[in-house]
Amino acid sequence: MVLAIVAGASVAAAALGSRYLIRSWQAYKARPVVPRLRRFYEGGFQPTMTRREAALILGIRERDAVEKIREAHRRVMVANHPDHGGSAYLATKINEAKDMLSGKSQNQGSAF
After folding, report:
1. Is residue 73 part of a domain?
2. Total structural domains in the chain?
């Protein structure tokens, strides 16, 4: 008699546990898809920076407004600043990208 009660309780516990797992799995599959964090430009820099490469480095479009360029520059620079463990080379490339997109590039040629 006791064995039947223990066996019945075990079967009931297994059934309830399975039911919980199935419902949890269905809820997990039905959740909205949240886009993953954007990945930044991984490098492989060109000898002379182009507007396309500058936009990839900052994670914006080539024709974005100056304010958006400043915000993107700040965000990327905070993550890569040399004073906080970042690379001086990457910081230089980030600054060069900001200058290129802002129109302050030194590689625009002679004014004469």
Report:
1. yes
2. 2
Average pLDDT over residues 29-51: 76
**Any domain includes 37:** no
Domain extent at residue 97: 51-102
Q: Examine the pLDDT at 55 and tell me if it is beyond 50.
A: yes
87 inside domain = yes
Alpha carbon distance 98, 54 (integer Å): 7
For range 60-76, the mean pLDDT: 92
Instruction: Kindly write down the DSSP assignment for every residue of 31-100, as one continuous string.
Output: SPPPPPPPPPP-----SS--HHHHHHHHTS-TT--HHHHHHHHHHHHHHH-GGGT--HHHHHHHHHHHHH
Cα gap 81→88, rounded to integer Å = 7
In a domain, 38, yes or no: no
| pLDDT bucket at 107, cuts 50 / 70 / 90 | low
pTM over 0.90: no
